[in-house]
Amino acid sequence: MRTSRPAARRAPGRRKGTDGAAPGRALEALVLLCSVAAAVAAVAQPLVLGRALDLLLRDGDAGRWLLLSAGLLLGELLLDSATSLFTGRCNAAWTASVRTRALRGLLRAAPDRARPHPPGDVGTRLTLNAADAGGAPAARAALAASLITPLGALVALALVDVWVALCVLTGLPALALLLRSFARDTGATVAAYQRTQSLIASRLLEALEGADTIGAAGTGARERARVLAPLPELAAQGRHMWALHGRALGRSGVLVPLLTLVATAVGGLRLAAGELSVGDLLAVGRYAQLTAGVGAAASLLGAIVRAREARRRTQELEGMPALAYGTRLLPSDGPGELRLLGVRVRRGGREVLRVDHVRLPGGSTVAVVGRGGAGKSLLAAVAGRLIDPDEGHVLLDGVRLDLLTHEALRTEVAHAFERPALGEGTVAEAIAAGARRPSRERVRQAARAAGADGFVRRLPHGYDTPLPQAPLSGGEHQRLGLARAFAHAGRLLVMDDATSSLDTATEHEVNQALCRSVRPGTRLVVAHRPSVADRADLVLWLEEGAVRAVGTHRDLWHTAGYRAVFGAGAGAGAGAGAGAGTGAGALAGDDVGGSGSGAVRGSEPEEVRP
């Protein structure tokens, strides 16, 4: 059974009105207002022009009507220009809003929730799809106005001559069926087209990230074929969309002249019978064109269908489940004791992590070891609450992590990763970025502890060098990530393979500085080298997602399975790879076997503080 969660609170950094807000509502209203006004002017203009023509033919005073006709024509042109201006601004505002909300949803989601979306797919959703979705409000307003024009023209036509209006009305159901069929068929094709776009973008980014490997292996042609493999499918989907669009426009292109011809013919007969004037006939022909112009709505309808599918894709990012935070604070004098009680994590219905009852003493350094796929990174993510377990609780100094406020959690739990994301500011800004703002001296102290101070000082502007202008190796990049973690270290520091790019000597120096120069606290270190496990106070040994043992490296080295984790043979001596481990107390659950003297089997689970 999933553990209960506290009620979600507003994520930090989110301002009231930014989520679900309507930044383009005023602009959308202006688009609608200008479009409707232009439609009214277009509907009124034939009637006024016809009246002016009748007066001219009778040698009457048509001056006022001619001026009114010219004014309506000029007003329609100005209103169309204003509509275009407000449409562009409305599209920009809504696109920015859609992108912001989708990106915010992606960034605040738990990492494992975002992982199924590859970078290329995310990029497509945030660029092309967001732009299509951002055009929906203005397109809806324009579509509403485009329907006002034929309806208004039909009413005006009925006022001029009801028989001509009835003739035109008989053709409108065919146009309505045409639009309905177009909207239905286009939706499925647009969705498939957008998915194929994302697939190509994802494959392209994968190829760019592995460009060195592809070049070294000489597999460029094969990789190019892989990236472009969906292109024929994309082309077929694009042709199908254009075929649907062309078919709709073609059919409406036949119906519109046909309806206009019928209306003109009936109007001519009515003129011959003396029921219509010449000006009325002029108005009849124009109103027939405007009424049949409902077929021109196909383009706007296609944009709305495309926007609807695109919005669905951006909403998948926007609606990702976010971590909820509570209202509790940590005790001020806590040493950083970490406990994992009945923790279960499942993926695809399979249990991938199980930690029944483990206590890591405050202030200790704990190495997490295991073969590939044993769940080391998953344990690190659960311990630092990057993700929540499906069952059980993680406690820091007796308080459940999921009950802590965002500030309390992120100021007291720091992380260092194998591939840190540093951003685009200066080197100093990259190190200082975090929940708290360290001083300039603290930033330099952290850089020295991470072994980064030397190469940072050699950069063109030292700590003020913009990151894009700093040529960093993999190890230097990783050391800046370590410096950031050290600058923000609280009572728990989680290091997930954060020294993998460092040579052994540098790694040893970093570990020594970690003990001397970084704020004391509990350190959870994902380790692959026996030297790291040897220097730790405790080792937490994972096997197939479960805790096999908790103890010191020296004690666990007597177990052949533990030695095999580091590639040591079964005949390795008891002291091989083992150093002077310091040993510390820990509690291990019922699934722990072969633990050393530093590990004690747990009995009943301890009471969880609410």
What does this structure look like?
This protein is α/β, with parallel strands linked by helices. The chain contains 22 helices and twelve strands. It has helices at residues 25-57, 63-108, 111-114, 119-134, 136-160, 162-169, 172-209, 211-217, 220-228, 231-272, 278-292, 297-318, 376-383, 406-412, 427-432, 440-449, 453-457, 474-487, 504-517, 530-535, 553-556, 560-565, and strands at residues 338-347, 350-360, 365-369, 391-396, 399-400, 413-417, 492-496, 522-526, 538-543, 546-551, 586-588, 599-601. Strands 6-7-8-3-9-10 form a six-stranded mixed sheet, sandwiched between helices. A hairpin with a 2-residue loop joins strand 9 and strand 10 (546-551). It is elongated and about 115 Å long. Mean pLDDT is 79; it is low at 1-21 and 573-610.
How would you summarize the topology of this molecule?
Elements: H1 25-57, H2 63-108, H3 111-114, H4 119-134, H5 136-160, H6 162-169, H7 172-209, H8 211-217, H9 220-228, H10 231-272, H11 278-292, H12 297-318, E1 338-347, E2 350-360, E3 365-369, H13 376-383, E4 391-396, E5 399-400, H14 406-412, E6 413-417, H15 427-432, H16 440-449, H17 453-457, H18 474-487, E7 492-496, H19 504-517, E8 522-526, H20 530-535, E9 538-543, E10 546-551, H21 553-556, H22 560-565, E11 586-588, E12 599-601
Parallel strand pairs: 3-8, 3-9, 6-7, 7-8, 11-12
Antiparallel strand pairs: 1-2, 1-4, 4-5, 9-10
Helix pairs in contact: 1-2, 1-5, 1-11, 2-4, 2-5, 2-12, 4-7, 4-12, 5-6, 5-11, 5-12, 6-10, 7-9, 7-10, 7-12, 10-11, 16-18, 16-19
